[in-house]
Inverse folding.
């Protein structure tokens, strides 16, 4: 632990309070091995790196399948540390999405057949057998990075209706699971306002109504159906008027009809996908979104047409009608950071390589991998300034760090301390030139 920055050690000390001493010893051994290794993240492969320290191999498997500890408590400690470090004040920029991780086997808990958003397109549908995870992440700006990073902090497993029936629980859709994660987040940070951005899968009337009920704490930004039914608020009842009170007021034109009839459009220069900026034309309006039996939700909708490139036309909405049009667009565009997170996790953290089958193992192992991404970013932010800005995976035109560089810097720092700083044979390593040291450390960090 002495090889780890003080702030990270302090976070680990908080984690250790959630475990018994023997379980914590095994958990932290697997955690460090998961940071230092590349490729598959099966428990057996992690044990090969630790050289079997701490007991029989089966005791490491039981850390996830049998031992008592709360992944929610760990997530709360990690979330508090991330918010205090990167966003100590101001609104919290939350993003959410779901992703499918393939998992083979006939008796894997929670497995189902899901649409694979990565391989599917508008005209081609691909399904995969595995787990569908609903993920809530926080967008932060790391030192040395050009774009914001989406750091996963809360996850929930989506179960198909058949799987929910088998295990005897109420079936919940991804928007309903996301609402539960947002409720948990607001309990953790009761005095902080959050702005949540989700893709079209989370553009539901119920989630918008939830955000509207907690408008002082939460705003929702997402895609909007162009044929949505919008109304004015119901008129006030006259004194002595009889009959049931009206639920809605005058019906308004649909957003697509308003866009079609608008000739003069406003132009804006906004941040766009990939970190650049584009010129767009916008049409906006305010109305009350109606669903029969569920009431009205007041919102601002925005139609966006890309004038610089060839991106398709989009409709967005925000439950905060005071939010500027540019901010609505840039908030939704920033949601793409979580897609980058999913891709980097598959490439660098072995998201689809776990092989647990029991209920507790499935519900713990992959959420720990999501948390590992966040932990690496936090660890990297507390390295010495010289190490934080180092680019290890360079290519033409690259000027800012990526997750590959952050992961490599963390490994390199650990190897440097282990080999050259804390060795008992210091007189031998002092003769090694700085150039040779760097070559050794780079090779270890990139090939671990």
């Amino acid at each position: 632990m002495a090889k780890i920055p003080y702030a990270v050690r302090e976070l680990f000390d908080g984690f250790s309070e959630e475990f018994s001493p023997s379980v914590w010893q095994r958990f932290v051994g697997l955690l460090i091995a998961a940071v230092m290794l590349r490729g598959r993240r099966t428990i057996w492969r992690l044990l090969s790196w630790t050289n079997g320290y701490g007991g029989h191999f089966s005791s490491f498997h039981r850390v996830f399948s049998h031992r008592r500890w709360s992944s929610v408590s760990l997530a709360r400690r990690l979330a508090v540390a991330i918010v205090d470090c990167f966003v100590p004040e101001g609104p919290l920029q939350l993003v959410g999405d779901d992703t499918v991780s393939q998992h083979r086997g006939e008796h894997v808990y929670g497995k189902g057949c899901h649409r694979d958003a990565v391989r599917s397109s508008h005209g081609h549908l691909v399904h995969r057998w595995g787990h569908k995870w609903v993920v809530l992440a926080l967008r932060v700006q790391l030192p040395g990075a050009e774009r914001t990073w989406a750091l996963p902090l809360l996850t929930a497993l989506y179960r198909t209706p058949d799987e929910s029936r088998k295990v005897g629980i109420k079936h919940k859709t991804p928007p309903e699971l996301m609402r539960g994660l947002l409720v948990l987040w607001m309990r953790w940070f009761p005095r902080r306002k959050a702005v949540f951005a989700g893709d079209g899968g989370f553009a539901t009337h119920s989630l918008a109504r939830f955000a509207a009920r907690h408008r002082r704490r939460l705003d929702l930004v997402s895609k909007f159906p162009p044929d949505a039914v919008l109304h004015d608020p119901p008129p006030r009842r006259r004194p002595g008027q009889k009959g049931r009170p009206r639920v809605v007021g005058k019906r308004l034109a649909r957003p697509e009809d308003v866009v079609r009839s608008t000739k003069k459009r406003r132009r804006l220069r906004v941040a766009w996908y990939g970190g650049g900026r584009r010129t767009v034309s916008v049409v906006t309006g305010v109305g009350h979104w109606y669903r029969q039996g569920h009431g009205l939700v007041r919102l601002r909708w925005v139609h966006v047409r890309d004038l610089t490139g060839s991106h398709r036309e989009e409709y967005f909405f925000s439950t905060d009608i005071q939010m500027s049009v540019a901010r609505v667009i840039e908030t939704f565009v920033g949601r793409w950071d979580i897609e980058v997170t999913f891709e980097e996790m598959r490439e660098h953290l072995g998201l689809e390589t776990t092989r647990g089958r029991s209920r507790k193992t499935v519900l713990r192992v992959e959420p720990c991998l999501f948390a590992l991404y966040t932990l690496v970013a936090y660890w990297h932010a507390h390295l010495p300034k010289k190490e934080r800005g180092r680019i290890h995976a360079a290519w033409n035109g690259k000027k800012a760090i990526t997750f590959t560089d952050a992961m490599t810097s963390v490994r390199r720092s650990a190897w440097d301390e282990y080999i050259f700083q804390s060795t008992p044979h210091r007189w031998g390593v002092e003769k090694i030139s700085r150039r040779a040291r760097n070559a050794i450390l780079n090779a270890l960090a990139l090939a671990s």
